[in-house]
Design brief:
Elements (H helix, E strand, L loop, with lengths): L7 E7 L8 H11 L3 E5 L3 E5 L9 E7 L4 E8 L10 H16 L1
Antiparallel strand pairs: 1-5, 2-3, 3-4, 4-5
Amino acid sequence: MAFGFPAYHTERYSTDTSKSADLRVAVRETLTALSWSVREESHDRIIASTSMNIRSWGEKLLISFLPDKSVSVTSKCALPTQCLDWGKNKANVGRFMAGIRKHV
């Protein structure tokens, strides 16, 4: 359970250089498989979001493509004043990491 304003969780995923070209494709496939909406996309990042449900007001995911052929994934609460996430952001990042490993 994270505490902050808003609560968040970040992890990093690295792959070997032979699979780095597939990383962006794997990220898109993972987002699709999880039914998370892409809100913004650029060369170095993707911003996605989850929908609101009974456990949360939704979360915003920032996926950054780093120069060393890795990605940094941050899930943070959509409601800026929410200081407790009850493990939801960590679970989102965990689900994303499991999906990316499956698709790479």
